[in-house]
Amino acid sequence: MAIKMFAEILKYEYVIVYDSANGNKLHKTSCSYITKKNYELKVIINQEKNGYYRPLEHLEELNDTSVRPCKVCKPNHG
Ligand SMILES: [Zn+2]
C-alpha cells in the first residue's frame, strides 16, 4: 500500500488510526491528536510496524467494530 502524505489525510473529514498497542481509534482530522509529528512517527519512522492511518470520507464507510471513537474529538457526535 502506498503511503499517503499527511496533507492528503487532512483532505478527509475523518481518519482511523490503527494501532496494535493502543487500539484502533476513529478521529476527526481536526483532532489535536492528528498531527504531522504523530503521523511521521508511526508511518515513516516506525514504518507502520505498530499501525497505520486510513482516511475516511463518511462515517458510514466504517464497518470495523475494533475501531473506537476518540474521546477527545468525538467523531461519532457530528
Ligand atoms: Zn480525536
Radius of gyration: 12 Å
Bound molecules: zinc ion
Counting DSSP E segments of at least 2 residues, the number of strands comes to 4
Global mean pLDDT = 92
Structure in words:
The protein has helices at residues 6-9, 36-45; strands spanning 14-19, 24-28, 51-56, 67-69. With 78 residues, it is of the alpha+beta class. The chain has a four-stranded mixed sheet, covered by helices on one side. A hairpin with a 4-residue loop joins strand 1 and strand 2 (24-28). The mean pLDDT is 92. Bound molecules: zinc ion. Zinc ion (ZN) binds at residues 27, 31, 33, 70, 72-73.
Which terms summarize this structure?
single chain; 78 residues; alpha+beta; four-stranded mixed β-sheet; 2 helices; 18% helix; 26% strand; binds zinc ion
Q: Could you outline the blueprint of secondary structure elements for this entry?
A:
Blueprint lengths: L5 H4 L4 E6 L4 E5 L7 H10 L5 E6 L10 E3 L9
The site of zinc ion (ZN) has 6 residues, from loops.
In brief:
The chain has 78 residues and is of the alpha+beta class. It is built from two helices and four strands, in the order H-E-E-H-E-E.
